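agent> Task received from the user: take the single chain below, predict its 3D structure, and emit structure tokens. No templates, no multimer pairing.
agent> Plan: (1) validate residues, (2) run structure prediction, (3) serialize to tokens, (4) report one or two observations.
agent> Step 1 OK, no nonstandard residues flagged.
tool_call: predict_structure(input=
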Amino acid sequence: MQDQSRLQSLSGILYWVALVLSVALPLLVLVYAGKWVTDPASLLPRAPGLPAETRVTPTQAGLVAAVALVSVLPMVSALRGMVRLFARYREGDVLSAENAETILQIGRALVLVAVFTILTPTLQALILSWNAPERTLSVGLDSGTLGFLMAAGLMTVIGWAMREAAALKAENAGFV
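)
tool_result: status=success, residues=176
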């Protein structure tokens, strides 16, 4: 049997990091959403292509805040999956069907995070430009987002591979 102490100790640290982030991230978005709703003009820097005199209504601010709140959900889902996965790893449970399913769920959530990374600023800029002389639609796609999307895809494939490996392990355990 291999020594899993490094895996267990690193998983213990990552467990706490993921747990703290899964709580702090939505709270941070809620704070910003509250700021935007109480001070709609503070949203103008989120859409640099808009003229400075563009009026932002409370309805627009509420919609931008709602989009931000919805867009954080896949990341929270991924972080909560990581919490579950790291908890099992720190207990020494490495190759199991539950872990494979969790890795697959994390990968799928991270794919959504990458998609929301593209859609959220685009949708928010469109909402903020309603009262502008011209509506603004800007779609941003950079190498960082593409790299993140590829990493999320890799996580999904690893989840599928782990599912197969866990099934083979269970099958082999039946022969022993």
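agent> Step 4: summary for the user.
The CA atoms of residues 33 and 66 lie 8 Å apart.
agent> Done.
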